[in-house]
Write a structure and sequence with these properties.
It is a single chain. The chain is mainly α. It has two domains: 52 residues, Arc Repressor Mutant, subunit A, CATH 1.10.10; 141 residues, Tetracycline Repressor, domain 2 (Orthogonal Bundle). Helices cover 71% and strands 0% of the residues. α5 crosses α7. The longest helix has 21 residues. The N terminus and C terminus are likely disordered.
């Protein structure tokens, strides 16, 4: 009877994802074990496999959820600079997702749900480049996109790893990012978004 009760769960998928995010946030994605996650969720050791098949399936679900949340976070940003701020805020607000999303060796890169969420996020990032003047794009929108992505991702990664404590020196990281973006991409096209 006890094993039957531990197998049934109101929302097993969510419980296992939440437990996985806790482990990733504390110990990194390499520390994940489906057996340990089942124990944390209070279900049989085989139960997570019904939803995720294996560890890679679980990490794929984490990445897909992360990209969907990321796309939502970027959607309302009015310009490239604010998309960078949203990028940084997403990374600091969802560090476990962020650790998994950009490590394709951890997940199934051909998963349809992951591909759809990633495409939405990519489109939201590209929309910020579309708002730049030709001069600020340097004549090559794709390279401008790589520059913007590198700045936002690098800044977020350095912030998460504690490497910007000295340079940021107690200032609001969003304001620091806006200043950095201005150094590379000039003034925002929407003056109200500085």
């Amino acid at each position: 009877m006890t094993s039957d009760r531990t197998y049934h769960h109101g929302d097993l998928r969510r419980a296992v994802l939440t437990a996985a995010l806790d482990v990733i946030g504390t110990d990194g994605p390499d520390a994940l074990s489906l057996r340990d996650l089942a124990r944390r969720a209070g279900v049989s050791h085989a139960a997570p496999a019904h939803h995720f098949k294996d560890r890679t399936g679980l990490l794929t679900a984490v990445a897909a959820e992360g990209y969907a949340l990321f796309a939502d976070a970027l959607a309302d940003a009015p310009d490239l600079r604010e998309r960078g701020v949203a990028y940084m805020r997403f990374a600091t607000g969802h560090p476990a997702h962020f650790q998994v999303m950009f490590r394709p060796e951890l997940h199934r890169t051909d998963d349809p749900e992951l591909l759809a969420a990633k495409a939405r996020a990519t489109e939201a990032l590209r929309a910020g480049i579309d708002g730049l003047s030709d001069a600020d794009r340097g004549g090559d929108p794709r390279l401008a996109g790589v520059a913007a992505w590198s700045l936002a991702h690098g800044f977020a990664t350095l912030l998460l790893s504690g490497n910007l404590e000295g340079p940021v020196d107690g200032r609001d990281p969003a304001e620091v990012f806006r200043t950095l973006a201005g150094l590379l991409f000039g003034s925002p096209t929407n003056p109200g978004s500085s």
